[in-house]
Design brief:
single chain; alpha+beta; Ribosomal Protein S5, domain 2; Alpha-Beta Plaits; 2 domains; eight-stranded mixed beta sheet; 14 strands; 37% helix; binds adenosine-5'-diphosphate; binds ligand DP6; binds cobalt (II) ion
Length: 323
């Protein structure tokens, strides 16, 4: 089939409240535990894909710079196999999120690539199939196919491991304030970090058990419109993930001194009666979970300590879509 039509997709990043941290199948990207996230309006990736039989190799440009194409090609091979085509592709992508800094660029990246590449290859995938495809690029990407609150059911094989949306309680106007502590590329990618933890942390099996309980408890808190418990579980789950990293061999941590400083500020705000909680992914940047009514007071305090340009306010974002 000759298909030189270009498709462009936009997908938003998501930040996990119950984290995915460890694979039981590294090739298929099947996680050890189910996870739950919030898709964010403020951060996203736009990706255009054109399959062109005149190309002799895949090409990948990120933010107007030519990149090593190997990871993207491996992903495109999965799409080509499903669509039964051989053509190489041009991929142009722009991140409206810092890359490789613990702000989930791989989630928005592979959700956008899955949507644009599957359409450009002539596939019409339903949402569960699109989520499964995005998962093959980066696990967290399977959740960015949907907007709002999203659960990734771990499943046990390729067919059963995908994400779906979870109902947002009516009175929950959740916001996430991102404090940008560093946009340097992390030294240990999420992929390497979680692999080392699975292989060496003596606490890994406890993590799997405890995150299963956290997921049940956070869904109960959502069903009961209980923001306080929702926030507390999110914060604790994130700290358990970071504790795993410190217990790995060789041990490592994504936290920077300013991460700790920000976490202490959040704990102080709670003592003043403001309901806010922190989470951090595989990077030093702190995300503060709060309700819309408290955003301006929290932003003020963070701006005073870190500078207002470091403080970005996000709320619930949309599903991946073609543009
Ligand atoms: P992050 O915290 O940003 O998700 P990860 O370590 O999970 O960091 O993933 C970073 C990987 O995602 C890198 O290999 C990077 O090249 C890739 N990536 C980031 N943005 C894009 C994009 N727009 N298209 C394709 N790959 C991307
Ligand atoms: C800490 O999805 O980036 O953000 O599947 O290896 O590409 P790969 O990893 P990735 O890991 C995300 C880890 C996390 C937690 C989460 O998003 O659930
Ligand atoms: Co990532």
């Amino acid at each position: 089939m000759i298909n030189a039509t270009t498709y462009t997709a936009r997908a938003h990043t998501n930040i996990a409240l119950i984290k995915y941290w460890g694979k039981k199948d590294e090739d298929l990207i099947l996680p050890m535990n189910s996870s739950l996230s919030l898709t964010l309006d403020h951060f996203y990736t736009e990706t255009s894909v054109t399959f062109d039989e005149k190309l002799s190799d895949d090409l990948f440009f990120l933010d107007n710079q030519k990149q090593d194409v190997s990871n993207v090609s491996t992903f495109l091979d999965i799409v080509r196999k499903k669509a039964n085509i051989q053509s190489k592709a041009q991929v142009y992508s722009t991140n409206y999120v810092p890359s490789t800094a613990g702000l989930a660029s791989s989630a928005s990246a592979y959700a956008a690539l899955a949507l644009a590449a599957s359409k450009a290859a002539g596939l019409e995938l339903d949402k569960p199939s699109l989520s499964r495809l995005a998962r093959r690029g980066s696990g967290s990407a399977c959740r960015s196919i949907y907007g709002g609150l999203v659960e990734w059911q771990a499943g046990f094989d390729d067919e059963t491991s995908f994400a779906y949306p979870i109902k947002m309680p009516n009175n929950f106007e959740i916001c996430m304030i991102a404090l940008i502590i560093s946009t340097n590329h992390k030294k240990i990618s999420s992929r390497m970090g979680m692999k080392r933890v699975v292989e060496t942390s003596p606490y890994y099996s406890n993590w799997v058990e405890s995150s299963k309980k956290d997921l049940l408890a956070i869904k109960k808190a959502l069903a009961e419109n209980d923001f306080k418990t929702f926030g507390e579980i999110s914060e604790e789950n994130a700290m358990k993930m970071h504790a795993l990293n410190m217990s790995a061999h060789p041990h490592f941590s994504y936290l920077e001194p300013d991460s700790i400083k920000a976490m202490k500020i959040v704990e102080g705000l709670r003592l003043q009666g403001i309901s806010c909680y922190y989470t951090l992914d595989a990077g030093p940047n702190v995300k503060v979970i709060c309700l819309k009514k408290d955003v301006s007071s929290i932003v003020n305090i963070f701006s005073n300590s870190f500078g207002h340009e470091k403080v970005l306010v996000a709320s619930s974002g949309p599903a991946a879509h073609l543009i």
